[in-house]
Specification:
The protein is of the alpha+beta class and 343 residues long. Helices cover 32% and strands 22% of the residues. The longest helix is centred in the last third of the chain and has 31 residues, at 304-334. The model is unreliable at 72-85, 90-105, 116-127, 325-333 and 335-343 (pLDDT under 50).
Length: 343
């Protein structure tokens, strides 16, 4: 590939803040079939990002390919833009991120330093994730070393840290079967056990009390399936930040689906309030276009009305079932015989 084409690809990358890098690295770990992913942030990720997983690692040859400048879909490590302060180490199974994996009997760990330096050094080091087990450890320091303009327009450390934590939280909701943790130098910011229960992830987000009140819903048609958890009307919030939508496992924003959820509540929501939910919509990939947004945070459905209708009906059915059960309980209580007091 020519240098001009490589520069055009690099210019089109969407790593605009530490959270973008965290997202890329987490997706790489999930591609490697990791079951536990740790994210460590220093100065909100501006100074350093460390991602450790127990997925399938790399051998020496595959680790070298991970940092070679090539097409946009294949270059998926270290913020998709290597620089002198990035280190990657793999151990165990060799693989190309985004591709298939092959078995490899290699107990050695490979460590790569200075990925854009002309003189390349390899060290036959400790285990890939630094803990003596199969896995990967990627350290990214000074992410915007080569792009100081982007560094200039970053927000405060607290804001950048919050956005990185949000990425980890979205990943945990999309994959509740994977254990996630996000921490700084001082304390753990977010952690999930990876037991496969979405309610457990929501408990880590909003507290056990809120998670217990959530209602389950499930509905399906010939082309679509909807399932997840929704909040009771009393759990509605003034912000949309408590609404989580996933399409084929990908977290997205979709005003049309959000409005369909609100319609499912009918007149049960107060004005200006938004429901709390974690909804999962599944369909054939041919029925949805995921390339309408540079960050792939939005999608376009081939039949949006059908999806919206199914979501609205599922929400209404979950709420109606709860209301009906409560009404029956009240009526049963009123039919009990009254005790009379004899004087």
């Amino acid at each position: 590939m020519s240098a001009a084409l490589a520069n055009q690809i690099a210019a089109g990358e969407v790593v605009v803040r530490p959270a973008s890098c965290v997202k890329e690295l987490i997706e790489n770990s999930l591609d490697a079939r990791a079951r536990a992913i740790q994210v460590h942030l220093r100065e909100g990720g501006i100074a350093e990002i460390v991602v450790i997983d127990d997925g399938q690692g790399m051998d020496e040859q595959d680790a070298a390919l991970a940092f070679r400048r090539r097409d946009k879909q294949s270059l998926r490590a270290a913020g998709s833009r290597p620089h002198p302060h990035t280190r990657i180490s793999r151990r165990g199974v060799g693989f190309d991120r985004g591709g298939g994996a092959c078995a490899l009997d290699d107990a050695r760990g490979w460590r790569r330093d200075g990925c854009t330096c002309r003189r390349r050094r390899w060290r036959d080091g400790a285990a890939g994730n630094g803990r003596g087990t199969v896995g990967t450890r990627i350290e990214v320091r000074d992410l915007f070393y080569n792009t100081p303009t982007r560094l200039k327009y970053l927000r405060t450390v607290q804001t950048e840290q919050a956005r990185s934590v949000e990425v980890v939280q979205q990943a945990a909701l999309s994959r509740p079967d994977v254990a996630f943790s996000c921490q700084t130098e001082h304390h753990v910011l977010f952690q999930t056990p990876g037991n496969g229960d979405v309610r457990t992830v929501l408990a880590a987000l909003y507290g056990v009390g809120e998670a217990k009140q959530l209602l389950e819903l499930s509905a399906a048609s010939n082309d679509y399936r909807v399932h997840g958890l929704i909040g009771r009307p009393t759990q509605a919030r003034s912000s949309r930040g408590y609404a989580h939508l996933f399409v084929n496992g990908r977290p997205i924003r979709h005003p049309g689906i959000h409005q369909a959820v609100i319609q499912g509540y009918q007149n049960r929501l107060m004005v200006g309030k938004h429901p709390m939910y974690a909804l999962y919509v599944e369909m054939d990939p041919s029925l949805v276009d995921v390339n309408v947004h540079p960050h792939k945070a939005e999608v376009r459905f081939s039949e949006e009305q059908d999806v919206a209708r199914l979501v609205s009906q599922a929400v209404a059915a979950a709420l109606d079932g709860t209301l009906l059960a409560a009404t029956r309980f009240v009526r049963a209580s009123r039919t009990r015989p009254r005790c009379s007091l004899l004087l």
